[in-house]
C-alpha cells in the first residue's frame, strides 16, 4: 500500500518535472514562434499588408522578448510578495 502510494507520487513528480522542462524549453519557444510567424504572415497576406512576411516578424519578436523578460519580472514580483 505505501509502496503504491510512493510510486504514484514519484510518477506524478516525474510528470511535473517533464511539464516544467517543456515550459522552459527552447523547442517550445521555437515551435510557438514559427506558428505565430505563419499565422501572422497568412493573416497579413490575406488582408493585403505591405511586405507581410517581413512584418510578421514583429509579433514573433514580441513573444520572444516576453519569454526573456518574464523570469526577471517574476523574480522581482516574488521578492515583493509577503510570506503566507
What's the short version?
With 84 residues, the protein is mostly helical. The chain contains 4 helices and no strands.
Description:
Helix 2 (26-46) packs across helix 4 (57-80). The protein has 84 residues and is an all-alpha fold. Helices cover 85% and strands 0% of the residues. The chain has one domain (2-80).
By DSSP (H or I, 4+ residues per run), the number of helices equals: 4
Whole-number tally of structural domains: 1
Rg, nearest Å: 20 Å
Low-confidence stretches: none
So what's the overall shape?
elongated
What is the H/E string? Answer: HHHH
How many beta-strand runs?
A: 0
* Mean pLDDT value: 91
Structural classification: mainly alpha
Report helical residue fraction.
over 70%
Biggest sheet overview: none
CA(first)-CA(last) distance: 34 Å
Strand content: under 5%
Task: Describe the structure using short key phrases.
84 residues, mainly alpha, 0% strand
Write the layout of secondary structure elements.
Blueprint: H1 2-23, H2 26-46, H3 52-55, H4 57-80
